[in-house]
Write a structure and sequence with these properties.
- Two copies of one chain form a homodimer.
- By secondary structure, chain A is of the alpha/beta class.
- Chain A contains eleven helices and 14 strands.
- In chain A, the strands form three sheets. A six-stranded antiparallel beta sheet of chain A has the order 6-7-3-4-5-8, with helices on both faces.
- In chain A, helix 3 crosses helix 11, helix 4 packs parallel to helix 5 and helix 4 crosses helix 10.
- The radius of gyration of chain A is 20 Å and the shape is globular.
- Strand 14 of chain A pairs antiparallel with strand 14 of chain B.
């Protein structure tokens, strides 16, 4: 039986898991414990897509060429600069004989593991949806035995589900960590992940809590009304500005917990400084530098627990899709922006 | 008054804290809320020193030149490749008029903030102690108002204290996280930080716990006898080997918590795979890749809490020095290896 983690497809270097590999085998003949997917769309991770857009000067043909170059070289859509991937949707095309999954050939699914470890072949890129980080393709992908996925629900458009599931980890972790009465700072609150975190934090912190969203664009203020207690407009790469404005929005007190869901680098200290000793700093941005976070807290003598955003937690797809079902405003914004 | 975080000394880029800065001002005229230190030794962070040694082919003169090049260019000893620093000891030379610290001019102290944010001038490198990552110098450094430090105790040699305080964060976090009965996996258990974590984990997990140390060198087996329940010899960059051997050492069960204190890259998955859903993965290695950790857990569908090692937690110096006082074996190894 092939390895449940997919190591049988690692080409270089040997002995690592597919995510850490430089190159993986993307031949589309499946093993008995793999699933073949006929891919329709890739939702590129925001940090990765931003980097590719910059490198390609926002030129669609250059973006296409860059994506093809990466997939052809690596056998997977893992941005070599950011290390990050994204996710995909498609139809189940074939199920390995050793598996009995909760789907059938022909079912539409979204993979919930990163593209950074998913064998992928692109025959053609048919469209690039610049503002929603989405790329439509003709091609195939492979899901390993441990690869989690979600069957697409009937009550929402596919594109909406895709946009939400891509960031399902963040609101689900928010749901588990925020307690009634907590003060919560969400850096990058105006983004896709940020809005979901805001809404979930409001739900968990309740009427005695205080949820503050930090955004860089003034236009996010309106989108976030009702989704948090206060919006502050500030560049997240300026930790001292962030500190001053964030404390002012919380009666001068430090926060119990901060979530970082921005998509640019150098925002580690902005997430750490406003949090109280004994509080939690949850870093979801793929542009986070490990050493900047670790040394930064030590450098200012902050006794906080800094957590690496894990895109998977039990029930994350259900938690996030529920949020879209019950929150009219978020669903409306998501349909307008990301579909 | 100058900024308590030291931002007044940031030269480029503007608006960031000293740790994130490319270049800081290392002029040695102190502000009213700074302390001037006459430096005796630098303890270079292990990941940084390993990188410099490799680049310099273990040639002492080339190592000296590299260190001087970094400090002259940046105004601080922050390795541009690893981003990490280390710590220093020296004598208090001057105390700013606005401060009333618990030390006097002439007292010996160890700084407990990273060299990656500490203004430093090196007049001369007088010795390089290759196997203990230590560099003796003539020079000066500046401590900011928020810069934590420890007065050196009288009952231990300076070099011993320096070696222990350099990694004080790891055993202190171990002390706070490990509960009685826990199974604990320590990757890099044979290193400086690792031995302290092992001893502290044994103390906290107690007789019903199971502390397993993973080391790459067979010779560490003997050093660790008595400091943990079992030693396994394995290359930490081979996650599947690690998984197999680690489970075998824990009756086939996954661990409650793992600590990563290795000093090489690509060990994220080795820390994640052996831990149970709902468990904790504590990453102390400065060679950790944030995206590899975040995406790696998601890629194998692991619902674990991944924590960024924070070198500071309240009482960390006291916790670590106590460990040396009460544990004869560790003190003996530390005196032999690092002094």
């Amino acid at each position: 039986m092939a390895c449940k983690y997919g190591t049988h497809r690692v080409i270089t270097p040997k002995g690592v898991l597919p995510q850490a590999a430089q190159v993986i085998d993307n031949s589309m003949k499946i093993h008995e414990n793999e699933i073949l997917i006929n891919v329709q769309s890739l939702n590129i991770d925001s940090a990765s897509f931003t980097q590719i857009r910059k490198e390609a000067n926002d030129n669609p043909d250059a973006i296409k060429a860059k994506i093809l170059e990466i997939v052809n070289a690596r056998g997977k859509m893992q941005n070599p600069v950011t290390g990050s991937g994204g996710m995909l949707i498609g139809e189940v095309a074939e199920i390995g004989s050793a598996l009995t999954p909760d789907v059938q050939v022909g079912d539409k699914i979204a993979t919930l593991v990163s593209l950074s470890l998913t064998p992928l072949v692109i025959h053609e890129i048919t469209a690039i949806h610049m503002n929603i980080d989405r790329v439509d393709i003709r091609g195939y992908a492979i899901l390993f035995e441990t690869g989690i996925f979600a069957k697409l629900p009937d009550d929402m458009p596919v594109a909406l589900v895709l946009a939400a599931l891509d960031v399902a980890g963040a609101p689900a972790q928010t749901s588990k960590l925020v307690k009634p009465g907590d003060s919560v700072l969400i850096l990058g609150g105006g983004g896709k992940s940020g809005m979901l975190c805001c809404a979930e934090a409001m739900k968990q912190a309740g009427p005695t809590g205080n949820v503050v969203a930090l955004c860089v664009l003034e236009r996010d203020r309106e989108n976030l009304s009702g989704l948090c207690n206060e919006v502050i407009i500030c560049d997240a790469t300026k930790p001292l500005d962030v500190l001053e404005k964030a404390l002012a929005a919380n009666n001068g007190r430090e926060y119990d917990i901060s979530f970082n869901v921005v998509n640019v680098g150098d925002t580690e200290m902005s997430s750490i400084l406003p949090v109280r000793d004994g509080g939690i700093v949850y870093l979801f941005s793929m542009a986070t530098s490990f050493t900047k976070a670790a040394l930064g807290a030590e450098g200012v003598g902050k006794d906080v627990t800094i957590i690496v955003g894990n895109g998977y937690t039990r029930g994350h797809a259900e938690i996030t899709l529920s949020l879209l079902r019950e929150n009219e405003k978020i669903r409306e914004i998501f349909e307008r922006r990301y579909v």
